[in-house]
What we know:
Blueprint: H1 2-24, H2 32-45, E1 50-62, E2 65-75, E3 80-90, E4 96-104
Antiparallel strand pairs: 1-2, 2-3, 3-4
Amino acid sequence: MNRIYRIFIMAGIIMIPLLIGTWVNAEEPDYAAWGRVAMEEVKAQYPHEKIVDYLHVGRQTEGEETVETFKLWLVGQEKEFGVIIDIYFKTSTEEIVDIRMKETKK
């Protein structure tokens, strides 16, 4: 009886990480690449602040242009604030047309 319990425990130890691995390895969302661009741009604009939070606000497409909007929360030595960043790109080629940033207190 003791041996059977050991076999079940060992099987569980082996199977649980495999099952968790399949749950965790979900596909990246469509906006992930644009989120990396947003973070790089904000880091370039605010090199001394630390990005502590990230939110995908949404995507809007109008004609041949799409805008991907993100909100990043930054903490520096003197202040804590948000940055709304809009990345405008051509929908068909994904070529960046414009990037706009605006600080926010909320």
